[in-house]
Design a protein that fits this description.
alpha/beta
Amino acid sequence: MPYAQSSGVKLYFEEIGTGHPVIFVHEFGADHREWETQVRWFSRQYRCITFNARGYPPSDVPEKDAWYGQDHATDDIAAVLKHLEIERAHVVGMSMGAFATLHFGLRYPEMASALVVAGCGSGAPKSERETFKKQCEATAVRFLKEGSAVLSRALGLGPTRIQLQNKDPRGWEEFVQHLSEHSPVGSALTLRNYQALRPSLYDLTTQLANMTVPVLLIVGDEDEPCLDASLFLKRTIPSAALWMVPRTGHAVNLEEPDAFDREVQEFFGTVERGKWTMRDPRTLAGSALIGSSTRRG
């Protein structure tokens, strides 16, 4: 099996296709397999890389808290790219992976040609931080006591997962099956040290406002925990666009794979043609009716 080393941890990865590199970063409830539809499509034109986060076999499952966290998740993306001798790539992240993708754009902007940040924001509002931390700890305890096979179906029936079950029952069953195979220890330590302890997006306003890497934000309109955060990111990042997907929950790439792939492909093409621009500051004027007389440029 192919592995990349990242601060003493082996990360399992797969790659296929040729062209500009695209690396996919999975969410908490998923692993590299949930990107299969995207890989099959984008590998026609791109070099596609998927990998399993630390704590997700066949990647290593460290058993110490210190080996998990936001910084490790961000650096792991860079480690996989450096192992493959890739200097710059498009980065596509979902949920937990979207947080890592966003931080990658802040920490390694020279390595990011474009960022797709999908389903980003669970637990981000400061008013929800303590409740979110308690939920993460309670779920971590359940993973250790009950195991992934028991927890997988409960998580699969969460309020932002029902949409996938309704649209694609077989796809939902596959998602739940993959989740049932995850390491209880890896899932618990990820919840405790990454999900619960990552900084709120709202604490990163200054850094995000200075971001120039092209960003496509994606959120389902029924992904309630991520709606407000996605709007915040759109308003804060001057290089960002927001695509809101109707009647869709959290895992947009699984629920609406064709639409997801088309939108992301159009984004990549626009970036590669040099046509992705920063937001025109005139669109931020206070009046909703009367524009400024100042000409752009």
